[in-house]
Amino acid sequence: MRARNSIGLTLALGGLAVGTAVFALPDSAEAHGAFTYPASRTYACFDDATGGTGGGALAPTNAACADALAEGGDYAFWNWYGNLVPDSDGRHREYVPDGELCGAHPDFAAFNEPREDWPTTALTAGETVEFRHNAWAPHPGTFFTYVTTDGYDTDTPLNWDDLELIDEVTDPPLRSGGDAGAEYYWDVDLPDREGRHIVYVVWERSDSPEAFYNCSDVVFGEEPGGTDPDPDPSPDPDPTPSPDPSPDPTDPPEGEYCTAEYTVVSQWNDGFQAEVEVTAGEDGVSGWMVDWVFANRQEITSIWNASVVNHGAHFEASSTAHNGTLAAGESTSFGFTATFEGANIEPRVACQED
């Protein structure tokens, strides 16, 4: 009998393009994904913090998730599928040091904390189980799945020597309608284990040096998973921290290709108008792309001075012919109108070369 995940989340993964141009993702675009079964720490905490709705304000009931939000902010929650190293190129031990396996990207560092109260998924030792890995942005590659060895102490940081490789699969089948949209799925033969362990996955792309790293906390045996033995009844993290101040357009941002600043110009009952200012770095830019994740099912209805594609809640807006080339410190902007449901939490935007 195949075990099933008790954590549920519905996030549509679409390929809708908005605006006058429709185009495929550039080759350099990042993939995104993480295990939804067994649930990765980031996915489990996002599900906990949103009450399974996938939107609204973040209010974790699990103490470990609440502490991760308070320590690291909301970025890793809304981007639970983005725990990556862009240029590891198969050299995983070199680029991901011991103790940082669960939060390989600095924005996910709070998820490295060794503790006993992360949300868990119950598994049965020796069973063949269908594992599911979200494909927020699909790409070819290989999934290396590990589990901690016998005697691993979950009160200690996770190291590479604590892991045993139990499965390797290249380009597994892909389907829509998964726990969080499109997903890869394949069968894994579980080893003989007992009690709390960590299932660890490395998704190594074959079309890029990029790789993804995620921990899933599991319990082998009868102990139920997915619960916090001592939840904090009143966590009080700030779900909407103030954005970083925008750079002076006459002083190019050092060491960055470009930066972006997001502003809500006006808002009404179920809609709003936003503007994003793009500023070139010290070397200038020739083509830019701004990406972000909307938290409240925002949908763009019109856009100007950029073309955009979305993959569910993940949006990527690219420069047009007339505003893609900017001198050092020079700025341009694009705008859009959109709808939203409930709250309209402002996203964290990032700018990169297109």
Would you give an account of this structure?
With 354 residues, the chain is mostly beta strands. A hairpin with a 2-residue loop joins strand 8 (174-178) and strand 9. The strands form 5 sheets. Strands 3, 4, 6, 7, 10 and 11 form a 6-stranded mixed sheet that branches. Strands 1-17-18-15-21 form a 5-stranded antiparallel sheet, with no helix packed on it. A 4-stranded antiparallel sheet has the order 2-5-9-8, with no helix packed on it. The relative contact order is 0.19. 8% of the residues lie in helices and 36% in strands. The longest helix is centred in the N-terminal third of the chain and has 10 residues, at 63-72. It has helices at 41-49, 63-72, 75-78, 92-95; strands at 17-18, 35-37, 84-85, 121-123, 128-134, 141-148, 163-170, 174-178, 181-189, 195-205, 211-220, 258-268, 271-280, 285-286, 288-293, 299-304, 307-311, 314-318, 325-326, 331-339, 350-353. It has 4 helices and 21 strands.
